[in-house]
Amino acid sequence: SPDYNTSPLWAVANQRATFQSGCEVDIAAQYFPLQVVRTGEIRVLPLQAALTKAYLLRHTRFIPRDFVMLLRNIQQCSPEAVVTMENISYGLREYAATYFKNEITSELNGYFVPKDIERVMDAFGKMRDTRFSFDQLRQRVPDRLHELLPQMLNILFDCGSVGNWERGDQVISQSTYRYKYPHCRMDLSKPIVLHPALSVAFNIADTDDMFVIPKLTGSRGIVTQIGSGFGFLKADNGQVYRFDMSEVADRKNTLL
């Protein structure tokens, strides 16, 4: 499956920027620094490798067009040379709502009429969760779409906009997308998960499976926000953690 931190997409973007500027450029290192925006006592999830590179790439389908459009939208929301977390947030929202969602709906064009496509998109938004069952989604669409829904979901799975939520003994939780595992197939008996960019488009809090590690710990340190609902904490002992706002131990002591 694709690697979030070593994807060749970053190398291609660096080469393009280097050619345009005439000097060697590392986009992630030079223009996407982490910015300290919160401090406080937080219950957090241990984190192994949560880099800005990984965060941005997971909002794509690992194809150049997605990645270029994401960087372009962030650039358009960044008045200064160095990108802030706020710029990333605004750029990501613009990318998700105006580009990614339109790309996904276009995958269904030609198979279904526009009003039926819009009903399914509305149903995704009304779920208010990134993970749900087929039956839960089915209850959100008109009766006339019940027979078409499996076909729609299979097309969306094939284009990488929805996946399955897996559970196992070795992996606590994992989302399976076609672009990560090309030989997998949609399984309607398993929970369905929205692509992270679709979650942003529908303004749904994203549960970030790539950083889920079972043991909770408590710590204090410097927190860096990298998303609307979660961020990273560098503890006094040097360890780096991911936290979710649902895991805040004492919201009164957290600067929001």
- Spatial separation of the terminal alpha carbons: 36 Å
> Fraction of residues in helices?
25-40%
> What structural category do the secondary elements indicate?
alpha+beta
Q: Write down how many β-strands occur, each being a DSSP E stretch of 2 or more residues.
A: 8
Main sheet attributes: strand count, strand direction, barrel closure: 4 strands, antiparallel, barrel
Order of helices and strands: HHEHHHHEHHEEEHEEE
Give the strand content: 15-25%
Shape designation: elongated
Task: Work out the helix count.
Answer: 9
Q: Segments where pLDDT lies below 50 for 5+ residues? A: 33-50, 209-229, 245-256
Computed over alpha carbons, the radius of gyration is 19 Å
Structure, explained:
The chain has 256 residues and is of the alpha+beta class. The chain is built from 9 helices and 8 strands. 38% of the residues lie in helices and 17% in strands. The strands form 2 sheets. It has a 4-stranded antiparallel β-barrel with strand order 1-6-7-8. A 4-stranded antiparallel sheet has the order 2-5-3-4. It has helices spanning 8-21, 27-31, 52-57, 64-76, 85-108, 114-127, 134-138, 149-158, 196-201, and strands at residues 36-46, 131-132, 162-166, 174-176, 192-194, 217-225, 230-235, 240-244.
What descriptors fit this protein?
4-stranded antiparallel β-sheet; about 40% helix; about 15% strand; about 260 residues; 9 helices; alpha+beta
Structural topology:
Layout: H1 8-21, H2 27-31, E1 36-46, H3 52-57, H4 64-76, H5 85-108, H6 114-127, E2 131-132, H7 134-138, H8 149-158, E3 162-166, E4 174-176, E5 192-194, H9 196-201, E6 217-225, E7 230-235, E8 240-244
